[in-house]
Design goal:
7-stranded mixed sheet, single chain, A-D-PHexomutase_a/b/a-I, Alpha-D-Glucose-1,6-Bisphosphate, Chain A, domain 3, isomerase, binds zinc ion, globular, 3 domains, 542 residues, 18 helices, phosphoglucomutase activity, TATA-Binding Protein, magnesium, alpha/beta, binds 6-O-phosphono-alpha-D-glucopyranose
Length: 542
């Protein structure tokens, strides 16, 4: 029986770059999740009887929201729900399941790399039929609906058994509890040379994968250990926990410190990798060598043809603006277009749908391709493994040979977190006003070539996104980028991106900190971060 529950609008339900993210306490309030989900159902484009995918990263509150979403979907005319067993679906796997099963969309319950638990974060994101995050027009409509909503609908039904695969009926709707790994693993087997990787593993290739007690555990166990034959124990922290073991499931050198130490130590395996809460980010570390996400994108693009799924070549390479230009040099060598988009995976969607780009990546540890419409942590790991197996080379050799061929983009990101919002804005405004006067001037030993406030015109739909970050480009390929984070939760986070290009005959074996030191001074001279915020050093360097 369908029941209509009276409700009133709740403020602040505007989805951000990756859906609605709030503390669990906020989501657990009466009607909070229900209002948002009903707003999604009220505006989502779908035919009667359409299928909906539901799954999450396993964090605290995941199951509660899934059960309620199922009762609501049944009351809102869906014909079928596909739910991941145990409430689990990684973000890229959910994207694939939506596409493969022709669903009209999906609810992905995650707050990505943010901590989980009763006092931590939760999130709901709606993805549309192409498997990608709802475009702004849709999220705007959802938000508008949250401001007028007066009822939500649910059938009266008890909880579904999420732990046993199979189909149950909830009202007139079928709920299929599916193996969260099966479809995704099958897709990976199509894209990559699993036989070749298995042979390399049998021949001694070793790796360590840190699942950070988050969603990729079951995927990594199945794919890396069961299918590819890596030794048991290769996957660390492989059981998803509701609080991620109390850690930040963020695969960077700070939060994946243990893995980094292993990889820099005497007993390091050949390859190290990690993924985040919902499985879309990746960290790549070779024996004794960290590969920046920007370099990883470039190196994967340069070698992608070695994997069966990309043997026909790439149509184009896209990167977000703050990501280093290393990938552009690969695109140039391959004779394919390079695209520079604003920060945020959603900007790649149109390029992928239009067949203009095949591989995309961001400095924020996201890499992926047109196989789904999300970034994909394990996909990047498997492409690396495919390249290592096909070449028989180490990560270090691949990196060094890459730099010898294309030159090297030394790169670092400095984050100033929890900065007073007004001070952060003053930094941005100050530099923004000085931009026009900068070209041709000298800062230390550097000469400014181009200075601009980045704006993007989408080549597919012509839409324009302005104010996407400040760029000061110096002669010979060095660059500073300054932008405010769009995902921070407390105060403002200033991100300063530093990049220095060394050509093939330059210093390719330098220490990153040393190579970037004159850019750090130039940044202070130009942006006055210390002077305006009182911060003399970044909180995080990645
Ligand atoms: C999310 C998006 C990424 C984006 C990142 C930027 O993770 O999924 O596509 O790169 O946010 O975060 P920022 O904090 O720099 O705005
Ligand atoms: Zn994520």
């Amino acid at each position: 029986m369908i029941r209509s529950h009276a409700t009133t609008p709740i403020e602040g339900q505007k989805p951000g770059t990756s859906g609605l993210r709030k503390k669990v306490r906020v989501f657990a309030q009466p009607n909070y999740a229900e209002n948002f989900i009903q707003s999604v159902f009220d505006v989502a484009e779908r035919a009667p009887g359409a299928a909906l995918v539901i799954g999450g990263d396993g964090r605290y509150h995941n199951r509660t929201v899934i059960q309620q979403a199922i009762r609501m979907a049944a009351a809102n005319g869906y014909g079928r729900v596909l739910a991941g067993q145990g409430g689990i679906l990684s973000t890229p796997a959910a994207s694939h399941v939506i596409r493969k099963h022709g669903a009209s969309g999906g609810l992905i319950l995650s707050a990505s790399h943010n901590p989980g638990g009763p006092d931590e974060d939760f999130g709901i994101k709606y993805n549309v039929a192409n498997g990608g995050p709802a475009p702004e027009g849709v999220t705007d409509a959802i938000y508008a609906r949250t401001q007028t909503i007066d009822r939500w609908l649910a059938v009266e039904a008890s909880d579904v058994d999420l732990d046993t695969p199979g189909t149950t009926q909830v009202g007139d709707m079928a709920v299929e509890v599916i193996d969260p790994v099966a479809d995704y693993a099958a897709l990976m087997e199509k894209l990559f040379d699993f036989d070749g990787i298995r042979r390399a593993v049998a021949g001694g290739l070793t790796m360590a994968f840190d699942a950070m007690h988050a969603v990729t555990g079951p995927y990594a166990h199945e794919i890396l250990e069961n299918r590819l034959g890596f030794a048991p124990g290769t996957v660390r922290n492989g059981t998803p926990l509701e609080d991620f073991g109390g850690h930040h499931p963020d695969p960077n050198l700070v939060h994946a410190k243990a893995l980094h130490e292993t990889m820099m130590g005497p007993d390091a395996p050949d390859f190290g990798a990690a993924s985040d809460g919902d499985g879309d980010r990746n960290l790549i570390i070779g024996k004794g060598i960290f590969v920046t996400p920007s370099d990883s994108l470039a190196m994967l693009a340069a070698n992608a043809h070695l994997a069966p799924g990309y043997a026909g070549g790439l149509k184009g390479i896209a990167r977000s603006m703050p990501t280093s230009a290393a990938a552009d040099r690969v695109a140039e060598a391959l004779g394919i277009p390079a695209f520079e988009t604003p920060t945020g995976w959603k900007f790649f969607g149109n390029l992928l749908d239009a067949g203009m780009a095949t591989i995309c990546g961001e400095e924020s540890a996201g890499t992926g391709s047109d196989h789904v419409r999300e970034k994909d942590g394990l996909w990047a790991v498997l492409l690396w493994l495919n390249v290592l197996a096909a070449t028989g080379k180490s990560v270090r050799t691949i990196a060094h040979e890459h730099w010898q061929r294309f030159g090297r983009n030394y790169y670092a990101r400095h984050d100033y977190e929890g900065v007073d919002a007004e001070a952060a804005q003053a930094v941005m405004d100050g530099l923004s006003e000085r931009l026009a006067a900068l070209p041709g001037t000298r800062v230390g030993d550097l000469t400014v070539g181009r200075a601009e406030n980045f704006a993007y015109t989408d080549p597919v739909d012509g839409s324009i996104s302005r104010n996407q970050g400040l760029i000061v480009a110096f002669e010979r390929g060095s660059r500073l980028v300054l932008r405010l984070s769009g995902t921070g939760t407390e105060g403002a986070t200033i991100r300063l991106y530093l990049e220095r290009f060394e050509p093939t005959d330059g210093n390719l074996a330098g220490d990153t900190t040393t190579m970037l030191s004159d850019l750090v001074s130039a940044a202070e001279e130009l942006a006055h971060i210390a002077a305006l915020t009182g911060r003399t050093a970044p909180d995080v360097v990645t």
